[in-house]
Amino acid sequence: MTQFQTYLVGGAVRDRLLGLPVQDRDWVVVGASPADLLAAGYQPVGKDFPVFLHPRTHEEVALARTERKTAAGYHGFAFHTAPDVTLEQDLARRDLTINAMAEDEHGQVIDPYGGQRDLADRVLRHVSPAFAEDPVRILRLARFAARFADFRVAPETVALMREMVAAGEVDALVAERVWQELSRGLMERRPSRMFEVLRDAGALQKLLPEVEALFGVPQPEAHHPEIDTGVHLLMVLDQCARLGAPLTVRYACLCHDLGKGTTRPEEWPRHIAHEVRSEKLARGVSARWKVPSDCRELAELVAREHTHVHQSGTFSAEARLRLLERCDAWRRPERFAELLLACECDARGRLGLEDRDYPQRKQLLADLRATQAVDLAATSAAAIARGATGPAIGAAVRQARLQALRSFTDAA
């Protein structure tokens, strides 16, 4: 049986060198054929290229491989595996130098492309011109920029990404892969960086033209000291990370102000009725990238109602009840809570107001609890006893909730 060597590669090596927890370990086998691994007890699992499960650890290992571009887009590759494919050849096909390092069984780092240097210099740099063959790498790099927020993108890598965009490579991306990378980037510790990098590469205009359109659009300085709508959006996304918001909230915040990009310049800096336009645009973005329903629904709700939530501190009990009704708060209390968190991120995503209090969230959650305390069965039974039917029963329930809200407001 052929003797082969196994190396730890990619993100596990990078994260260990950065002193970060290692989440996933990827392994590459050099000097072996599929038959060699089968003879050693490895179990095959791969379809596109040979991947096996280690007989003892059950971790995935892949045969060292090279790849060749055969068509546009993410799927347009042919892979070659053979015992004579070297570790350096396998690492050369990877995206960034900081991901193109390996570690042998003795802990020795193999770094043929300067990954350790770029880690020390805090640089995201492509390994080779082959980076341009896979448009997903633009999204991956932008996601890494959101994770490693103190890293800069090498100028030559920015230039290469711009060439890729100009060549139409981004147009070949499939919706599922775009959403996968966008959603992961939104969950990084500084999501704004992802969109800054995509914008610098020219890819944001292709992927999210509704977001690109926000940059350079002014807002009233009294409410938005940062003025620029695009800058505000980036600040809101970073507030999402700061407050530990889930993906649903982060995506909703991404879409909440899209309508401001369609306001006519003669109407600036006001954006009257941007909410309904934002809701429509959010629906279009979600359809384009096949966004999951929980993210899509919250995005539309936040786009439509965030201004009302901001203003709710001045609302009467009747107006606050209508807000709860429009948000379907009794049937969807968890989604309502996420709406309020998104609105708090929006309120804090403003220059100099990052630590502001947001009493509307506390108030509306308390309003919901007060109205949830209404005994619906008893209220309905009493209405029926009075001869009420159909809509009249619903009106009685609504009146009971309104009375509960008024009593709670008076007692506060």
UniProtKB/TrEMBL annotation:
Q: Which SMART domains match?
A: HDc
Q: Which GO terms describe its biological process?
A: RNA repair; tRNA 3'-terminal CCA addition
Alphabetized UniProt keyword annotations: ATP-binding, Hydrolase, Magnesium, Metal-binding, Multifunctional enzyme, Nickel, Nucleotide-binding, Nucleotidyltransferase, RNA repair, RNA-binding, Transferase, tRNA processing
- Provide the binding site for Mg(2+): D24, D26
Q: How is the cofactor bound?
A: Nickel for phosphatase activity. Magnesium is required for nucleotidyltransferase activity.
Reactions mediated catalytically:
a tRNA precursor + 2 CTP + ATP = a tRNA with a 3' CCA end + 3 diphosphate; a tRNA with a 3' CCA end + 2 CTP + ATP = a tRNA with a 3' CCACCA end + 3 diphosphate
Q: What is its EC number?
A: 2.7.7.72, 3.1.3.-, 3.1.4.-
Alphabetized InterPro entries for the sequence: CCA_bact, HD/PDEase_dom, HD_domain, NT_sf, PolA_pol_head_dom, PolyA_RNA-bd, tRNA_CCA-adding_enzyme
Q: Name one GO molecular function term.
A: ATP binding
What cofactors are annotated for this protein?
Ni(2+); Mg(2+)
Residues engaged in binding CTP = G11, R14, R94, R140, R143
Q: Which Pfam families match?
A: HD (PF01966), PolyA_pol (PF01743), PolyA_pol_RNAbd (PF12627)
Q: What are the HD domain coordinates in residue numbering?
A: 229-330
Q: Which Gene3D superfamilies match?
A: Beta Polymerase, domain 2, cca-adding enzyme, domain 2
State whether it acts alone or in a complex, and with which partners, per the record.
Monomer. Can also form homodimers and oligomers.
The free-text domain remark for this protein reads: Comprises two domains: an N-terminal domain containing the nucleotidyltransferase activity and a C-terminal HD domain associated with both phosphodiesterase and phosphatase activities.
UniProt record similarity statement? Belongs to the tRNA nucleotidyltransferase/poly(A) polymerase family. Bacterial CCA-adding enzyme type 1 subfamily.
Reported function: Catalyzes the addition and repair of the essential 3'-terminal CCA sequence in tRNAs without using a nucleic acid template. Adds these three nucleotides in the order of C, C, and A to the tRNA nucleotide-73, using CTP and ATP as substrates and producing inorganic pyrophosphate. tRNA 3'-terminal CCA addition is required both for tRNA processing and repair. Also involved in tRNA surveillance by mediating tandem CCA addition to generate a CCACCA at the 3' terminus of unstable tRNAs. While stable tRNAs receive only 3'-terminal CCA, unstable tRNAs are marked with CCACCA and rapidly degraded.
Listed name of the protein: Multifunctional CCA protein
**Record organism:** Roseateles puraquae
Its gene?
cca
